[in-house]
Every structure is written in C-alpha cells, then in structure tokens.
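Aim 2 progress update. The chain analyzed this quarter is reproduced below.
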Amino acid sequence: MNVIDLMDYLDCYINLLNAGYYITDSNREDKYFKVIEDAQEAEEPAPLSQDASFEDEQKYIEAKQKYDTA
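Predicted structure tokens:
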C-alpha cells in the first residue's frame, strides 16, 4: 500500500465519520446500503434568485450542506 492510497482511504473514512456513518464489521452491510440510499435521495437545491430573502438563503445553505454531505 502506498501513501497516496492510504491518504485517500483516510479522507473517505473521515468524510463518512463527519456525516454520521460509523461503519464496523457488525453493521457494514446495513451502513453501506444506508449510504447508497441517502445519496440517491439527495437532490441539489435550485440556485438562488437575485431577490432571495435571508430566510431563503438560510434554507438554501442548509439544503446545499445536506446535499454535499450525501
């Protein structure tokens, strides 16, 4: 195993941990299916219009973060 492969693995592992997916040997299959289902359900939010309100911007930011996490 080279260093680049190890760093790529650690990056993916940390991203999953930050998203709340704790994968162990006992729950591996269930979590893999959960990750796939969550990614399929995520939709990228529509871009904001020029006259968007502050509340619209907040909703967009939350939706975009959820999409990026998925």
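The chain has three helices and no strands. The radius of gyration is 16 Å. These observations will guide the mutagenesis experiments scheduled for the next reporting period.
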